[in-house]
Amino acid sequence: MKIPLVDLQAHYSVLKPEIMAALEEVLDGMQLFLGPQVKAFEHNFAAYCQCQYAVGVSSGTDALAIALRACDIGPGDEVITVANTFIATVEAIALVGAKPVFVDVEPETYLLDWRQLEQACSPHTRAVLPVHLYGHAAEMQPIMDFARAHGLRVIEDASQAHGATYQGRRVGSFGDIGCFSLYYSKNLGAFGEAGVCTTNDEALAEKMRMIRDHGARIRYRHEVMGVNARLDEMQAAVLNVKMPHLDQWNMARQTHAQAYTEQLKDVVEAVPIVRPWGTHVYCYYVIQATERDALRATLQQEGIGTNIHYPTPIHLQPACASYGYTAGLLPVTEFVSQRIVSLPMYPELTEEQIYYVISAVKKHSLCKRMQ
Ligand SMILES: *Cc1c(COP(=O)(O)O)cnc(C)c1O
After folding, report:
1. Same structural domain for residues 330 and 193?
2. What is the pLDDT of residues 131-152, one digit of tens each?
3. Which residues, in sequence order, are CB contacts of 46 under 8 Å at separation 6+?
4. N or C of the chain: less Cβ packing under 10 Å?
5. Ligand 1 proximal residues by C-beta, below 6 Å
6. Radius of gyration of the chain from Cα atoms?
7. Where residue 184 sits, what CATH number does that domain have?
8. pTM score
């Protein structure tokens, strides 16, 4: 049996008629930018995240960079974040000219350890940028308390956590701004590049709308140097078709995760855990295995796709060399990066496929024990 890490074909085939109709409508109208589709998506996504405003942009990376710009963060400023994330989180900080400062994560959840914020804070610190990694909400209350006490902004990277909650409230609604990637493989994805920022601050929303469209609120009147980072109507039309299914897809992911966890918790070194204060929407289902690479090779032989999110922590990437960070700085991040592996996870996984993956993992660990 062949089981990919993510099956986009299965996802698309169900929605194809609806998506085609929506795209045709956009093309027939030929209003391709900042039209009714974007407006509707922004309205619906803001409501979904329990926020006042949403601003559609052209990618998750742009969402983060525009959010930082809107908060006036730039050269000379520091932003505290984590190193076990996709490079874009850190790229956005560098793009606006600020310096990323890293804290370690909790070993059970892989999420930002707020207890380390104090020691990472300097007179240059302007913001904290937690990542709701793999789909589990970061521990927002202590992060918000710390930020407010120190006059810092909070920008959430919710690119892997559309719909996840913290104490009953949706992620993206806690910080000054929430940033979401709508890349095609995320829990909610367009069929190209797309992203969105959420906020309850009207002034920040207005500023982000301006920055994404060449710094202009009125055409050809450029108040600030902006960028071209609008969400386009075609992508918004796809998102409007998918949006009503998001909760149901997240529930399917949770059901799959439960099956994996029940069957694998005594087999591998670690399965994902869910804190009582939050929910997990399993953008990725990540386990730990001591002989991770051997496990991946076995699964590959069985036709099962896996991945590592992420093999090299960002502070040790060549792109970060100029900051001078070295191995040993983030012991938990560095340790788990050697053991984590992501198993196939997408809403359309069948029970048969899940048990095929489970039995392949079990078989591998049984062989290992008998050696
Ligand atoms: C996907 C992702 C991004 C970047 O989003 P793009 O839409 O690909 O630019 C940023 N942060 C995290 C945590 C992501 O998973």
Report:
1. no
2. 999 999 999 999 999 999 999 9
3. 52, 53, 54, 198
4. C
5. 59-61, 85-86, 88-89, 131, 157, 159-160, 181, 183, 195
6. 21
7. 3.40.640.10
8. 0.97
